[in-house]
Ferric enterobactin (Enterochelin)-binding protein
Amino acid sequence: MIAPARLFAAALVAVLALTGCSASDASGDGDKASAAKSRTVKTDYGEVKVPSKPKRVVVLNHALAGYLYDLDVPVRATIPEDADGKGTFSPYWAKEAKKDGTTFLPWSVDGFDLEAILALDPDLIVGGGIGFPLFQAEKVYDDLSDIAPTVLVGKKLGDWRSQFSFLADDVFDKGDVYEQHLAAYDRRIAEVKKAIKPPPGPVSFLALTGDGTAYGLVEKVGLPAEFEKVGIEPAPVFAKGGFKVYGQGGDMFELSTEKVGQTITQPSVFVMGFNADTTDVATLKKNPVYRALPAFKANHAYDLPYWVLRGDYDESMALLDIIEKKFS
């Protein structure tokens, strides 16, 4: 049985085909020639035939858009960072987005706006990544594929290296660009490691939502692993605590307020908001549970911007600047 949303998307495709209002129909022979050249990409969701030089790419995850700008792939539209949000370009790719004329698509907790996506007549859709955008893209993968070739970055690709490498090598055939960026990042890692004096370790990491719910970060995944590369040792909080991973990302675990007091006992702790700068060390110090933590009492609790939690390449480079400035 075909889901109603898919029927809707298929119907819209048919209407546009009959009325001739597709943007690709109006774009001339250049687009037709480009569309004739394609390549096949292996994904977790099957093989996808994509155009070799796409010209109207829709990116259904704000956190993935930066990679496409780094690869000089034109982005027709993306979604806001937060569901139901207005949408703001990242400062690390705002210039490129304005040059491309990138717009924001409507996006809510109920899902993507398929009609709005179809109206843009994309020749490629890129989605997936970590968290809610992946969950929603998986639910409507067939509908998206009815609109345009759709490549989802699978959940196994959990950090910027694997995501960037997949998009550069497999999807856009620009593996040399990824290698150049990786080499620059590794050089910066070496520079920062040499320049800093790490805080007392081992360290732990906390992300807090707007309602104050605390999440510890799994020490071998994502952000803590990046800190380890510059000589800041993450504590084995998750490995020894018997916690369960929260959500689709695989990089966090929930902590009750009581558990925060029992678990975050390390000499240093890094604090950040989740999806926004929802809190800071100064605010948490007003809470007796946080004020009593060893790292807070010793003034070794440090603020981080929210966007470092699941940073892309550019944000990860910016994180190295923050670490260098804070501990040099």
